[in-house]
Amino acid sequence: MTDTFTEIRTGEADPGFPREHAGEAGAAPLRIDLLGPLRASRDGLPLPLGPLKQRLVLAVLLTRPNTPVSMEELTDALWPDDPPRTARKNLQVYVSNLRRVLDPGDLGRLRHGPGGYVLHLTADECDSLRFDELARHGDAELRAGAPNRAALHYRRALDLWRHAPFSDLAARADVLRAAVDRQHTRRLAVYEAWAEAQLETGEPAPVADTVDEMVSRHPLRERLRAAQVTALHRVGRRTEALAAYDDCRQQLSRELGLEPGAALQSAYRCLLENAAPSRPRGGHTGSRLLPPDLADFTGRSRERDALSAQLGCEGGPPVLLTGPAGIGKTALAVQVAHRLAARYPDGVVATRLCAEDGSIRPWSSVLAELARSLGCAERLPPDREEAATVWRSWLSGRRVLLLLDDVPDAAALGPLLPPSGPTAALVTSRSRLPCLESAHRTELPPLSADEALHLLGRIIGRTRLAAEYGAAERIVAATGFLPLALRAGGNRLSVLRHMPLGQYADRLEHPSEALDELSSGGLGVRARLAGAWARLPGPARVTLRALATLPDPAFSLPAAARALGLDGRETQRALEGLIDVGVLAPPSCPEVTAHRGAASESVRYELPWLTLLFAREQAAGPGARC
């Protein structure tokens, strides 16, 4: 006979289970709790579960509800060393007793089949099943771009926990200890998902108030630590947030020999930048939510002036700043935004459209962050187009500057761009975003040699640089004149003050050591390149792996064709694909004759040196170095 169950909901006050259930026909509702001491009740009255070994049988069945558990597994759990000759008969007695208690209506709740015994339960009857169901609902709401509803489902799931699962029985059987470990792992993942969703809602206090207990159990869990640092920062407990980061960093280094990962480093950078809303000078009422200007920002005066002029035109199209990873797009955009803040009294705000690991943030999360930062009180509906309409309506007539950083593609900008009017958008992207037809475009090149030397001198000291000027020239060349790499290398030299610049230049010029050497604190060139690699389309990765076999970063079209195994036209298309995604600069030859005979030899393409080194690692396989 098939069991039928109908859930009767009785309002939002219920933290997990409905207050009433319509169970089997003619039977009162059953409830079994295992997220704590094992207990069972029917219609609110406790059920007698019998002696220890009988309760152990029930506990083992509950580790895999609705799934067969063999007689052998049950025997091993009850008598792990030397089962008696009567073990099988004793098990049958225990099961028979449990069937009378749990299934008095003889509806087949506890059955024996080919694979063993099966205990049939629904999510309304077992707290662990309800926990999983609520967590799945939370995951679905998060995918749908509804962090508020996701946080509510996750919180209801977490509230079902009373204590460790099977806390009165777990020590009695290995199978129960393994099940408890799995449940704790699942609870941790749900807590982390809740914390991140709760932070997305703009209410960090519940996370800040509860995260310490979870951290005490899982001190090396970086996802959890990132939520802890972010929550403490956002509620104003900045000193505690710094201490939390430092504690995790030291434990990772001491126990695992690792540096903090991308998510935790991102939370730490936000903490150092103290990115919180503040009023701009001059009595303006809008929010200013920008990272701080870099004190040692160097060069870029021509590009800065061009961007400022383009953003000064009211009602103009988006202003697009492009270039490869580590070229300094964000730093320049932030400086321009600070410079122009007085022109936008209704708010200046920056947000990233991609996470540190290269994954694209949900549009709903980005839009909600922008709305909160600017004080938009309108409720944004879950539908993308409806939300975009509400957002643009709110922006209409307001003088706001949006800095939309690290945009993966034009589609991600769709619901964010302002309507025609005084609001302006400054967009940074590694891709050239060819579909963004109306944008003002500025391509950011590497620093000049003089600018790169000037920046390195500001980091390590001009006296030290002047003492080994030739070695300094080699260092800046080995970094590809990229600001990110220069800062990473300069910071490392600032720590290793005993190291001659020539020795460090030797390391950087060795292909197998360069990326390892360009890492200091939260600045890691390899990690940034890995994030860029993760976002590349598949064909672009294939092209880069093939180009990694070339001996030099500069190459001709015929050389690329030989590496790719393609004809001239197909090779051009493959290289143009790399140009579109911002990995490769356009060729130096002004004439579009690269596919014609000897003229093709005069066209020179050039991959950034560090990108080439990373591509060689990828071509060599996991764990390989050049």
From TrEMBL:
DNA-binding region extent: 22-121
Name this protein carries in UniProt: BTAD domain-containing putative transcriptional regulator
Superkingdom assignment: Bacteria
Region (Disordered): 1-23
Lineage, broadest ranks: Bacteria, Bacillati, Actinomycetota, Actinomycetes, Kitasatosporales
Family designation: Belongs to the AfsR/DnrI/RedD regulatory family.
Family annotation (SMART domains): AAA (SM00382), BTAD (SM01043), Trans_reg_C (SM00862)
Basic and acidic residues biased stretches: 9-23
Residue ranges annotated for the OmpR/PhoB-type domain, each copy included: 22-121
Keyword line: DNA-binding, Transcription, Transcription regulation, Two-component regulatory system
